[in-house]
Design a protein that fits this description.
Helices cover 28% and strands 23% of the residues. The protein is an alpha+beta fold and 325 residues long. The structure holds zinc ion.
Length: 325
């Protein structure tokens, strides 16, 4: 028997304006299907489902004079329904596909107590030929961010193997379906307001960073903010890319956090936290004594060798000479 997955906490509703914002991202949310004759056209709007006819040219007969005038529809251009005023894309009934289903991926987020949750959606507008559009929002992932903890990712999928028919939440993904690293195109502005209510507002999200990557890294390693602000840009990149820093999270001082000697902190700062130096300074700290700059360079040089035997050969060489020779 498979064990029951842990329970998904109760979630707050997403504001209606977020869904409206997402729908507006769709390129062909509504379709205006049309049929043209010489001087008239018939339009069916997928937003309201209504159909109207109008003349598109000058009235030539009395009958036409009584008819309302409408704009001439052109295939794949934007127009407005005269019944409900929705904006849609004109599609010629004779030339268009029988079904439209533009889809968009988006991410929003909410404060949850002291924590934060990112929520990932896809929004799809389904329109059959001359039918009313049906808009569907599907939430497929939630990423829980808790200060100092590894981000927890949940995915929504249907467990057909267990005979289930309704999608349910699982703390793991199967087959990379709806992988959030693939579908993350748009960020709902609402997430920013919610995030600003948490401790993560002090973070330094650079324009080049994906907000999900950044805030996952920041919540897992809250010290990131301090190192960002001290100018250790190389260290910052390592944390965001997910390299292990071997933090000592019990320490409160910057040098202690990084497991390096206190007298190396300024040097590492000047090197912007470059990884090879960080690792060398950590090895130095572990050895219990201060190394010469030559020893540091030798350590960095040796670290390039993946093969243990190569390393030993080079270590032997260093016994007789130094890197500068
Ligand atoms: Zn309409």
């Amino acid at each position: 028997m498979s064990k029951e997955p842990p329970k998904m906490p109760r979630m707050r509703n997403i504001p209606k304006r977020s869904y409206a914002w997402a729908e507006d991202l769709l390129p062909d949310k509504y379709i205006l299907f049309y049929k043209r004759k010489t001087s008239t056209a018939t339009v069916t709007c997928s937003a309201c489902g209504g159909t109207y006819e109008g003349r598109t040219g000058y009235p030539e007969t009395l009958e036409q004079q009584a008819q309302r005038h409408i704009e001439i529809p052109y295939h794949n251009t934007k127009g407005q329904c005269i019944l409900c005023h929705a904006v849609g894309t004109y599609k010629s009934e004779g030339r268009c596909r029988s079904e439209f289903h533009p889809s968009v991926g988006w991410v929003t987020g909410q404060k949850m107590g002291d924590d934060f949750v990112f929520r990932a959606f896809t929004t799809t507008a389904l329109t059959g030929k001359c039918m009313k559009t049906e808009i569907q929002h599907h939430e497929y992932a939630r990423i829980f961010l808790r200060k100092g903890k590894k981000p927890e990712k949940w995915y929504c999928w249907t467990d057909y193997w267990a005979g289930k028919e309704q999608p349910t939440w699982h703390p793991y993904n199967i087959g990379g379906m709806n992988n959030i690293s693939i579908i993350r195109w748009h960020y709902d502005p609402y997430y920013r307001k919610e995030l600003d209510k948490t401790w993560m507002r002090y973070g330094l999200l650079r324009p080049s960073y994906d907000p999900l990557d950044y805030y996952e890294a920041l919540s897992w390693h809250p010290a990131l903010e301090m190192f960002q602000k001290s100018g250790m840009t190389e260290l910052e990149k390592q944390v965001i890319r997910g390299y292990s820093i071997h933090w000592n999270t019990r320490s409160k001082t910057p040098a202690g956090l990084l497991r390096i000697r206190k007298d190396r902190l300024k040097e590492l700062k000047d090197l912007r936290g470059e990884r090879k130096y960080l690792l060398a300074f950590q090895a130095e700290c572990k050895s219990g004594r201060r190394w010469t700059s030559e020893e540091i360079e030798e350590h960095i040089y040796l670290e390039q060798f993946w093969d243990k035997r190569d390393k030993e050969v080079m270590q032997e060489v260093f016994k007789h000479t130094t890197i500068k020779k």
